[in-house]
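Why run this: before we spend reagent on co-expression, it is cheaper to look at a predicted model of the complex and decide which construct boundaries make sense. The entries below are exactly what would go into the expression plan.
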Amino acid sequence: MYELEDFGSFHVGGRLIEVSGEPSRTVAYAPGMEIEYDPNGRFRIEQVYVQYFVPRQRRFEPALVLLHGGGLTGACWETTPDGRAGWLHHFLAQGFAVHVIDNVERGRSGFCAVEGVWDGVPLARTLEEAWDLFRFGHPDDFEARVPYPGQRFPIGHLEQFQRQFVPRWTSTSEAQVHGVSAALERIGPCVMVCHSQGGYLGSRAAAAHPGLVRGLVCAEAAAYPDADGLAAGTGFPWLMLLGDYLDRTERWARGSEAARGCAGEIVRLGGRAEVVELPDVGFAGASHMYMMDGHSAGIAAWLGDWIRSRC
Amino acid sequence: MYELEDFGSFHVGGRLIEVSGEPSRTVAYAPGMEIEYDPNGRFRIEQVYVQYFVPRQRRFEPALVLLHGGGLTGACWETTPDGRAGWLHHFLAQGFAVHVIDNVERGRSGFCAVEGVWDGVPLARTLEEAWDLFRFGHPDDFEARVPYPGQRFPIGHLEQFQRQFVPRWTSTSEAQVHGVSAALERIGPCVMVCHSQGGYLGSRAAAAHPGLVRGLVCAEAAAYPDADGLAAGTGFPWLMLLGDYLDRTERWARGSEAARGCAGEIVRLGGRAEVVELPDVGFAGASHMYMMDGHSAGIAAWLGDWIRSRC
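The model came back. Tokens follow.
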């Protein structure tokens, strides 16, 4: 049972681009529904979709903003591949008003289909890449689906997990930071939980809005703001929350080092930052996708406690 | 206040495709996060995302399935451009368990980024095109934003409306019918409300699942199934629900004629079908996007009555 004071969605931000001088052509939107498609005119791109759920029994005043990682959408917070409730549900039950973002180019925000506006092409992700990048297991063990010992990701449901994958560009970071910023300005005071690529984008947007952000959780951020960005972000507490098996790949050994470096710099600048590895607080076996791991509910409970005590 | 028995989402359907023989290349997912991107492997495409909301006080047993039109996502049922509640909320309040689909290639279902799998390129939509296609006003009156007399679409919020637009292919109908079919098989017994392009895709999927569909509302369908499709769909009632200003454009004059032709054929085959023009039941000024018009709540109430009495 969920008692909601309100729920809904909105789109915010983006910009208009104009196309001119292109020839029109006949296309069929459905059998018999031919139209003369005119590719000229004003197109709106780079807006952001936000869906929100406000519980009747709200027990924390700032909004909670969930920002997905690369190649995923806000759907990653809604359900686990094996069909359990997602962090959206767990944080709602804890009394948070939860705002789920689909960042620029992802999900219900839509992508720019006008050629030449975004550099490069969208990249799709294979299960093979996810297996390594998300630390489910060693690449050599992919075909046999043998995970790292003690791994808690629902490995038996990888194909269902793959249905959540969407393509991603690698050239849209600035537009995405602007998109998240537009969302923050609309949402107001908030604590952000930002995963992977979202950790990089969200921490940049957070640092640019120190008056709105009450706390920032970088859930295995793919990168961190530069020195100027960090200097602007010392007014709220940071948590770098890392999973297990960090030393198994060179990439995540570096990622863990970057998290420590960033936290150290924030503290040096007079701010507050903690680095927590989930195995150290009772959650061994955490993958990069720990919001979907077998112990995801417990991790959400731990994280809710951290937010209530620090933010 | 919304009391929900349950809510959540799932992805369903789609297929795996395999890519081989392509060179890998270095890409940066974030600053300092370079990876060797391997475009070979197995990619999952053409799945469908469904988000569902089950009210505590359920007053209608079959699920209600909402299927968006072309260039839009399930978000079109959530809010109006001027910020009023969408049909999702109105039908929930009427006691329906509402399932909102993002069809193949749209929104959180993701699109296929592997070249050569889908024909053609995605098309984006300008406001100019929407103005004419959605019958807000005469094309000559677009620049001055002068709508048809009595038009109830929130014309003052066209730019906000445009934020909901997403690109669409014109070559994916078969995959989309399969996607909706996979969703129906998962959802079970249902009544479908299918808008515009979704009216074409949804009616084809419905006719292919006569054992699951208890009723079908074609909300200004862009096209209808062929004779074989109609023959399979005589076991449930059809409603062709049309807006206002149908005689203002040749396209919608034809669309209205097609609706009457389809309904006549269903009746001839021994089935049940009604054609209703909204002005005839008290809703003059209805655009093609009547789920967003000023009287959208009243139309939802009328449609709920129709569903309860016929399905």
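Residues 282 and 299 of chain B are 9 Å apart (CA to CA). The longest strand of chain B covers residues 2-12. Bring this page to Monday's planning discussion.
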